[in-house]
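Input.
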Amino acid sequence: MSNPPVNFFLSEKYFPPILVLVLLLLPQISQAIESRKIEKLIEDAQSPIEKQTRVKEKQLVLKQGKENYLKYCIHCHGKEGKGDGRASKYINPQPRELSQGIYKFHSTKTNSLPLDEDIVRIIKGGVPGTAMPAWGEILSNEVVNSLVIYIKTFAERFGMELPKQKISIGMEPPFDDFSIAHGKKKYDELRCGRCHGENGEKEGELSKILKSFKGTNWFIYDLSRKDFYKGGSSGVDIYRTLTAGLDGSPMNSYDYISDIERWNIVHFLQSLHSVKKNKKLSTVQKIT
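Output.
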């Protein structure tokens, strides 16, 4: 007599991890459902004329966004946001593949969608050390906002989930030798030097073999050159990068270490910058 078939999802082997996955996704699903409920309430409260006006306004913004994208962005990012524009073959590192919905720079938690303000910040400020220019002084806020709306249509992910909670920036301790020394100690403990080099000079043992999620070579930048910090070189910028990581890259999130430890690493990295090179590191060797 043959054994009765066992449901794949209910088998003892697979049920626990599937259950864990479901429990992890529940808050995100619940958040998306609640957001859609609110949108539905707003839509239902509108008159037919208001609904029609809202649809027309959205269509107009998308139309403007597409026109602006074709004018300013298509040459690098490509017609469908796949990073395959005509200029892309001459650019290294290559343009972001917007159709994946994976953004390296965001103020939300790791592996999350960015907020609109994050995309605005990238467009306006550019990405140092890459071919992505700063458009802030060239494009109006209206143009930038239309680009954000249109760019989000490339990735289905924006229609399936919401950004996670915004990162909370912990209180910064004093920038002093004590903080710098503890930052250097943590930098060594986390083995950051394997990629970034012992003192951030980009010559770590893994620096030549790192790959992006697309399989392309990954650039390690000199951390002593603050102009090359792609996510920004201010204290808050570096803290945010350490907390969120750089999605789609080998740079992990360090949200599991304490706020003070992250700030100490920030101060160690900032001590490498030319502006703060005069800061004596007399205590660095004393912290063991």
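The two ends are 67 Å apart (CA to CA).
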